[in-house]
Structures are given as C-alpha cells and as structure tokens.
Specification:
Elements: H1 6-16, H2 19-22, H3 35-49, H4 60-80, H5 101-109, H6 130-148, H7 152-171, H8 176-189, H9 205-214, H10 220-227, H11 238-244, H12 250-273
Helix pairs in contact: 1-3, 1-5, 3-4, 4-5, 6-7, 7-9, 7-12, 9-10, 10-12
C-alpha cells in the first residue's frame, strides 16, 4: 500500500471538488450529495484515514475541528444512504462562518507536513539550529526505516550523510584559527590530504572523522566504528560503485548506522559536558 501524505489529499480535494480552489477560502461552499459526490467523499474519508497519525500535526482546536468535520462527512454519507433525494453537507465546527467540512479539511491538511520523524527518533535537543535539527531527525528516521525494511544501500549512504551533517554543524561552531591549526598538524602527519579545503563544507566523510577524532569531539571507539562505513558514503554515485566494485549489504548498513549512533552519543555528551554553551568537550 502506498503511503498517503497530507499534500496528496489536498490535491485530491482540489481535483474532486474543483470549486474549492475557485472561491475565496472564507466563502462557504454547500455541497449536495449525489452518487458522484458520495463516491468522492468516501474516497476522501478513506485517504484521510490512511495518513500516518504523526503527520496530522495540528493544534488542539484545529485537531478538534479536523475530527469533527471528518465525522460530519461520515455521518452525512450514512444519512444519504437512507434517503432518495440530495441533502446538503452540513458543517460541524466551532467556527461561525458556516464553511463546508470539505473546505475546513482542505485548509487544515494544508498545514500538515508530508514527512515527520518517527516518535522513536532521537530528539537532538542539543542542536540549537531548529531547522537543521528537524531535517536531521527526518534523515535519522529515514535511516532507521530503511534498515528495518532491508534497504541496505539507503541506510548505509544516508547514515553517512547524517554523520557528515552532524560534524559539519560541530565544526562550524569552532574557533576557525584553532581548527585550522589542527588541520595543518594532520596534514604534516599525513593523516589527511594536503589539498583539503579550509571550508568544511567541501570535506568528505573521512576528513570529518579524522579531524573530529583529533579534536576529541568523537572517541577513538567512535572513530573506528565510523570509518567502517566511510568508503560507502559516496555509493550514491553509480560511477563510484562500479569503479570500486563496492556493494551495500546488511553488514555495511549496520556498520554505518552504528557509526551514526556513536557520533550522536559523543556529540550529545560533549554538549552536556559543556553545559550546551560551547563547542563540546574540547573548545576549538
């Protein structure tokens, strides 16, 4: 079964009830039930019932309106089945404007997102950038879903991307001079390439791991675990996959996800140890 999301249902409403788009949002629309309208309304109810509950992100009052107006459609359809003539679709809502339940559901579903992290996904409250935190939680949720469904390549590649994003966030909060000093030292040691950019946005996963370990942002244990998946991060590019004869499987996925979880743990502990006010265990 395909996954139904709010925007899909909004599009359905606009196609099934074209008048919705043509009239101002605050102008009531009266719908009369006939066989065609009943079929479309039944389809609407079924689609809404298939939307994952975590995507119905509405305030208390809005959620009450959502449930009441969905119920209004179901009750009216049940009444229509027992009569021969058309009946008007009434509005059950706290709002006094007399809008149709279809209009109200169209408006409320437009407020809901098409993606949201599963409830089990780490909160990442120690990341101060709200937008980044939300995006990372979505990615982590996708990683866990891919792993559970046996999508080994998706889990492997996306877990590496999460590690990159987390460490980039960390480095962008660093003292630039001290970060560059560490990079210069690693170049001298031969731990990273001499052509590495001064801007972490251009780095690759191995660079992030080596620099983070050198700064004690991640532990040696985490470095070892994260490096198990570093060669698989770029398998999103078909050429890389063919040149190196690399293939993702359950082992690569588990290794990459474990590395991701290790990095999350270390960064969380670093922020906790620094009181959430500085870069981490080591201020760089």
């Amino acid at each position: 079964m395909s996954r139904v999301v709010p925007s899909q249902v909004v599009t359905y409403i606009e196609g099934a009830f074209a008048e919705i788009k043509r009239r101002p949002p605050n102008k009531p629309l009266t719908l009369h039930i006939d066989k065609v309208a009943a079929a479309r309304l039944n389809g609407l109810v079924e689609l809404i019932r298939q939307i994952p509950q975590e995507l119905i992100l509405l305030s208390g009052d809005d959620y009450s309106d959502f449930i009441a107006n969905l119920g209004a459609i179901e009750v009216t359809l049940a009444r229509w089945q027992n009569v021969d003539n058309s009946i008007a679709l009434a509005s059950l809502t706290r709002l006094p404007d007399g809008l149709s339940p279809v209009q109200i559901l169209h408006s409320l579903l437009g407020k809901c997102p098409d993606a949201y992290p599963s409830p089990e996904t780490a909160e990442l409250r120690w990341i101060d950038d709200v937008g980044l935190r939300q995006n990372l939680r979505l990615d982590i949720s996708s990683v866990n879903k891919a792993l559970a469904e046996g999508e080994w390549k998706a889990a492997t590649v996306l877990a590496g991307a999460v590690v990159e994003a987390l460490l980039l966030w960390r480095f962008q909060r660093a003292d630039g001079a001290k970060l560059q000093c560490t990079i210069d030292t690693l170049k001298t040691e031969g731990s990273i390439g001499n052509k590495i950019s001064k801007d972490p946005r251009w780095w690759h996963l191995p660079d992030f791991i080596v620099v983070a370990a050198a700064l004690s942002i991640i532990t040696p244990e985490t470095k070892a675990q994260a490096e198990l998946g570093k060669e698989f991060r770029n398998l999103i590019h078909p050429g890389k996959e063919q040149r190196d004869s690399l293939r993702c499987d359950r082992a690569t996925a588990l290794s990459a996800v474990a590395g991701m979880e290790h990095v999350i743990r270390d960064l969380k502990e670093g922020e906790k140890g620094a009181g959430g006010a500085s870069y981490g265990r080591v201020v760089v």
